[in-house]
């Protein structure tokens, strides 16, 4: 398929655009279903957004990273993962801009989101250890990939325990938006799940198309895999998060919006592990460029800044954007500058 796309550049760009459109279309509709299912199942919008919605909207990215890693394009696979995390964190700041009532990190205060953000920083740090540590692999898999999966599962258990037995509470203010203020859509629960699954499949198929066309575009244009992965495929496969967070903020589901981004980012770190499993030439962490490691380090900083914003809960700022918004935008701009040099 790659050879066919390389031989027909117009077809490659058209397929890329169509897949991007599918991701956008399904992303809008799956957000409504996620908020409804979070309430109807008793899971809650924040936890549902972090785990199920975050994981589902991450499907295009994970399929892109795994498929490209399987075909030997290590740098494209890894840069797609780390670039997607950076882009999605930046999307949260865009949502903050359109939410005019208060700073989003203040209004969407949630203990689950704080724990999820802590987990994200820990997972990113583990991945950074793999990139900078010794080149070790067992059956062509770096042991850190196993650690990442186990750490993620353990983190989900902590989030669930935190929801059931909280030890810390966010003080309520007039700007805080509780989930109980939002309407709960009707309809049979089984129907909601079927629709959710259908949109998830559409997103996954589009993700595969993005991966294949991403490889072709890199070959056609001669642009490095790092640039294509960080700025092209990662943004395209992250569009469900952009649609989700903006749409969720518009309908008032603030905890869902923040939870989807942070939870999706935590799940996206597992792209590295899954890509390592698919990559057959040794540890994928040591088959990437220095620029990819730099973007991963930027992700750690961006997540830490977001964590500080969630803890500080500043109600307003310049245009209702707190210090964390400007710092995240600046860090993302720095990552783009370094990668494109």
> How many helices does DSSP assign?
14
Q: How would you describe the shape?
A: globular
Total tally of structural domains: 1
Second CATH tier, the architecture: Up-down Bundle
Per the CATH scheme, the topology name is A middle domain of Talin 1
**Gap from first CA to last CA:** 31 Å
Total number of beta strands? 0
Derived from helix and strand composition plus strand pairing, the structural class reads mainly alpha
Look at the structure and give the mean pLDDT.
Answer: 82
- State the CATH class: Mainly Alpha
Order of helices and strands: HHHHHHHHHHHHHH
**Uncertain spans, ≥5 residues at pLDDT below 50?**
178-182
Radius of gyration, Cα only, in angstroms? 19 Å
What is the CATH superfamily?
Answer: NCX, central ion-binding region
Q: What percent of residues adopt helix (DSSP H or I)?
A: over 70%
Strand content: under 5%
Describe this structure in words.
This protein has 14 helices and no strands. The longest helix has 33 residues, at 189-221. Helix 2 (9-40) crosses helix 11, helix 3 packs parallel to helix 12 and helix 5 packs parallel to helix 11 (239-250). It has a single domain (2-340), classed as A middle domain of Talin 1 (Up-down Bundle), CATH 1.20.1420. The relative contact order is 0.24. The protein is an all-alpha fold.
